């Protein structure tokens, strides 16, 4: 085993500067025996590293090779398996457990003992030894722990100590100096012994000779120690002095720090005081203006405005943390709050007085406008009040309760004032409407100063009382049918149109001016933020002032634009009912006035919506426009109903029906009114309804007519309708115009054919029989062989109609046509010319039948085409 140990030291560990301390021959437990060696080594250089190396013999068996190395510090447990019985097995616990079986128990114990010593010296007992005999460990430590560590190491080292390179070199030099060093070792050893003795003697003599110097050195050391003691005493005194100086310097440093801290605090305090003084100090002039300032003069209003702005800035200053805990700050805030309350009460009281005074002043001017169709001008009042606009903005942001109270008071006073003005204005308009029309006579009114008093309800009552003496609708289509063009007082309608336009023209600037004033005076612009809402800075720093400022703030409306509209609705609450009453009056005076009102109202609504679709004026006029449109539709419906209720005389000829003539007049009037109007679509729809009603009822009357033939009624009326539509060129009725022309043409042809069957009745019947035989399949040249239609019968029929009889028959026909047709439409010559053409066509048709069915018979009519032309011409001229 010793030879193996030397071989391993030489071949494996010496090249790596390591010393082999212990070795054990082992194999792995439970496997096929493959022997290897576990070696405990230490490095020769410091710091010393202790390792455990596994060495294995090569496969060829001629040398050893290093396989695995573990640092001893990584070894956690050494398990000897059994501390009592001899057992060659043992376990080493590194990162995993390695199970070994030693070749002998003695080798195992020696190896574990070496690990124990190395653990005690280098690892400070970090390794746990389990199942190891305490006797084995005690043998490793014979005289105490420390001795065991040192001695154990020497014992391990003394087993073998190899020369290093320097020692080998010195020995070689020494041996080269002696010739017999190799040949005669004894002589060489004796020589070395003699030289060693000489050196020992020299050392002893040198020691004895240096005793005197040692004594001198000891004396010098004693003196040096005395000097050191003196220096230490001085250093101690110096240290005491420096300690005193240090304490004084510490006191000075602390004092300087306190002085610096005091200065810093004073600067900060001065900054805070300057901040409070600069931002929370209100000038005496401002205080005086708030308490005693003249709110009636322009200079006083300006001073109060500046003072109020300054007060608001002082109240809204963003206080820093802790400011609100200062008594002076709280007192100043309370003072500002008292000033605000005092000035707010004074301002609200003054403005309320201004509102009341305005009502009295404006009422005195109403008498001047009582006979004029004009509304009083509120511009001076608005101009005076706008001087307070900035103060109202201040009041809105500081005391919303008083601001809201002023708003309500303004609406109450102004609504009563405007109600008086607007009602008087509409009374004048009604007087002018009824006093300048023929309807005033029916209402019992005479002249522009007619006895129209009170509201529209009294006028309506008056009209109801007189309605028994007049027709239900003054200008219904049937009534208009009984009037001439001069009776339809166009001047009255034009007058009504001007009055209605003037009413709207007066109301529009009044509403716009008031809305603009409300927006400016009450500071109700288009932004969404509402007064009284608290900003985040006010919430955090305003303290008690902010909480007082926002107390009692009402929930905000959706927008200030809505608030303006609500104020306008309350102030001008009487406009819409008064307009509706005026519209009802105009409709009673003349139902056609709804056309004028529809056009005018549509124009004003369109203008208002272009400015602001959601404004009060736009909404109100839009609502009234619905009423006007409803009246217009009612007018159209009444006309259609009256068409359906028309009754014709059974004794006289029909002629042009009243509602046909009235449609012509309606269309002409409507075209003049709706020229370039925005509501053309409504008129087109009304045209369509009316013309359909006219068509249906013309046919109905024609079917019911007893005196006048149906074709004549249809022909004359549809000719009149076609002429009207052609003249007016109404684009939406192009289809109806073509239809009217077709109906006129068809019924003209039908009437002509029906009438011409009578003058040559027998001749017509004869040739109808001939055509019937031909239709049955008889050849035309064979018709003459029929008994009822031979040549003799033909000559007999022709002899009954000589030229004189034909002229007489045509003359009777002309007279009958003249009785059927009316003079207004002047269609007699048109119908007579059509009859002439039809008669000539029939004549040619008869001649053709005679030529085809009776060839070579020499039978001809006893009159010619020229005779027919002469007869018709002479008859037309004679009448």
From TrEMBL:
GO cellular component: exocyst; Flemming body; perinuclear region of cytoplasm; plasma membrane
Compartment(s) of residence: Cell membrane; Cytoplasm, Perinuclear region; Midbody, Midbody ring
Transmembrane parts of this sequence: none
Mitochondrion as UniProt keyword: no
Principal place of residence: membrane
Recorded coiled-coil stretches: 207-255
Region named Disordered: 440-480
Signal peptide stretch: none
An example Gene Ontology biological process: exocytosis
Highest taxon, organism lineage: Eukaryota
Gene Ontology MF terms in the entry: phosphatidylinositol-4,5-bisphosphate binding
Domain (Exocyst complex component Sec3 PIP2-binding N-terminal): residue spans on this chain: 31-122
Biased composition (Low complexity): 445-476
Key words, A-Z: Cell membrane, Coiled coil, Cytoplasm, Exocytosis, Membrane, Phosphoprotein, Protein transport, Transport
Function in brief: Component of the exocyst complex involved in the docking of exocytic vesicles with fusion sites on the plasma membrane.
Family: Belongs to the SEC3 family.
Subunit and interaction comment: The exocyst complex is composed of EXOC1, EXOC2, EXOC3, EXOC4, EXOC5, EXOC6, EXOC7 and EXOC8. Interacts with EEF1A1. Interacts with SLC6A9; interaction increases the transporter capacity of SLC6A9 probably by promoting its insertion into the cell membrane.
PANTHER family: EXOCYST COMPLEX COMPONENT 1 (PTHR16092:SF33), SEC3/SYNTAXIN-RELATED (PTHR16092)
Protein name: Exocyst complex component 1
Gene of this entry: EXOC1
């Amino acid at each position: 085993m010793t030879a193996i140990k030397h071989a391993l030291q030489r071949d494996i560990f010496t090249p790596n500067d390591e010393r082999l301390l212990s070795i054990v021959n082992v194999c792995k437990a439970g496997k096929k025996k493959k022997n290897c060696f576990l070696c405990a080594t230490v490095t020769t250089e410091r710091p010393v590293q202790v390792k455990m190396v596994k060495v294995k013999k090569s496969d060829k068996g001629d040398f050893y090779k290093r396989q695995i190395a573990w640092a001893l510090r990584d070894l956690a447990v050494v398990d000897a398996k059994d501390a009592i019985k001899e057992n060659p097995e043992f376990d080493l616990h590194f990162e995993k457990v390695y199970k070994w079986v030693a070749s002998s128990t003695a080798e195992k114990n020696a190896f574990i003992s070496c690990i124990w010593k190395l653990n005690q010296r280098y690892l400070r007992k970090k390794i746990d030894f389990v199942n190891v005999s305490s006797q084995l460990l005690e043998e490793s430590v014979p005289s105490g722990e420390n001795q065991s560590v040192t001695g154990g190491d020497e014992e391990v080292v003394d087993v073998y100590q190899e020369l290093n390179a320097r020692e080998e070199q010195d020995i070689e030099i020494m041996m080269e100096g002696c010739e017999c060093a190799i040949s005669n070792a004894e002589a060489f050893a004796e020589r070395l012994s003699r030289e060693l003795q000489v050196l020992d003697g020299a050392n002893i003599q040198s020691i004895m000779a240096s005793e005197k110097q040692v004594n001198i050195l000891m004396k010098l050391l004693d003196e040096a120690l005395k000097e050191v003691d003196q220096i230490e005493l001085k250093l101690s005194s110096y240290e005491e002095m420096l300690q005193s100086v240090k304490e004084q310097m510490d006191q000075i440093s602390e004092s300087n720090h306190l002085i610096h801290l005091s200065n810093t605090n004073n600067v900060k305090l001065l900054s805070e005081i300057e901040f409070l003084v600069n931002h929370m100090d209100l000038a005496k002039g401002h205080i005086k203006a708030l308490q005693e300032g003249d709110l009636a003069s322009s200079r006083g209003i300006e001073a109060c405005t500046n003072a109020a702005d300054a007060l608001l800035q002082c109240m809204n200053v963003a206080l820093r943390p802790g400011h609100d805990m200062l008594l002076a700050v709280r007192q100043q805030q309370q003072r500002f709050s008292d000033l605000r309350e005092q000035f707010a009460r004074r301002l609200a009281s003054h403005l309320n007085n201004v509102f009341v005074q305005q009502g009295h002043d404006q009422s005195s001017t109403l008498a001047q406008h009582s006979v004029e169709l004009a509304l009083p001008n509120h511009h001076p009042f608005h101009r005076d009040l706008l001087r307070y606009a900035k103060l109202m903005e201040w009041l809105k942001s500081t005391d919303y309760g008083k601001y809201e109270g002023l708003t309500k008071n303004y609406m109450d006073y102004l609504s009563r004032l405007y109600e008086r003005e607007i009602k008087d204005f509409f009374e004048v308009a009604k007087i002018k409407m009824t006093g300048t029309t023929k309807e005033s006579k029916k209402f019992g009114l005479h002249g522009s100063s007619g006895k129209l008093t009170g509201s529209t309800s009294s006028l309506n009552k008056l009209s109801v009382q007189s309605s028994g003496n007049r027709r239900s609708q003054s200008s219904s289509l049937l009534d208009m049918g009984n009037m001439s063009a001069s009776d339809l007082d166009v001047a009255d309608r034009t007058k009504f149109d001007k009055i209605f336009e003037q009413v709207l023209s007066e109301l529009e600037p009044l509403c716009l001016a008031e809305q603009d004033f409300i927006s400016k005076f009450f500071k109700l612009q288009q932004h969404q933020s509402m007064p009284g809402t608290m900003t985040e800075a006010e919430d955090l720093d305003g303290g008690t002032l902010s909480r007082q400022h926002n107390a009692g703030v009402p929930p905000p409306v959706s927008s200030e634009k809505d608030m303006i509209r609500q104020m306008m609705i309350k102030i001008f609450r009487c406009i819409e009912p008064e307009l509706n009453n005026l519209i009802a009056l105009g409709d009673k005076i003349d139902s056609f006035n709804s056309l004028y009102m529809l056009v005018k109202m549509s124009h004003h609504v369109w203008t208002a919506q272009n400015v602001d679709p959601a404004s009060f004026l736009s909404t109100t006029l839009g609502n009234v426009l619905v009423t006007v449109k409803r009246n217009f539709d009612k007018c159209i419906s009444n006309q259609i109903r009256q068409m359906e209720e028309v009754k014709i005389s059974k004794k006289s000829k029909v002629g042009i029906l009243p509602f046909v003539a009235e449609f012509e007049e309606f269309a002409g009037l409507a075209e003049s009114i709706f020229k370039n109007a925005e509501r053309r679509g409504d008129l087109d729809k009304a045209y369509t309804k009316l013309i359909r009603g006219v068509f249906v009822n013309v046919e109905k009357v024609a079917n019911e007519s007893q005196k006048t033939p149906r074709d004549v009624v249809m022909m004359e009326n549809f000719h009149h309708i076609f002429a009207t539509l052609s003249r007016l060129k109404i684009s939406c009725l192009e289809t109806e115009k073509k239809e009217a022309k077709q109906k006129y043409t068809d019924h003209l042809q039908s009437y002509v054919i029906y009438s011409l069957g009578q003058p040559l009745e027998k001749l017509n019947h004869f040739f109808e029989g001939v055509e019937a035989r031909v239709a049955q399949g008889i050849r035309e040249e064979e018709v003459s062989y029929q008994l009822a239609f031979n040549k003799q019968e033909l000559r007999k029929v022709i002899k009954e109609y000589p030229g004189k009889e034909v002229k007489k028959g045509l003359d009777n026909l002309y007279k009958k046509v003249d009785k059927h047709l009316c003079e207004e439409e002047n269609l007699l010559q048109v119908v007579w010319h059509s009859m002439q053409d039809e008669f000539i066509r029939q004549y040619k048709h008869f001649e053709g039948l005679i030529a085809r069915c009776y060839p070579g018979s020499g039978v001809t009519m006893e009159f010619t085409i020229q005779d027919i032309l002469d007869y018709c011409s002479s008859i037309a001229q004679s009448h």
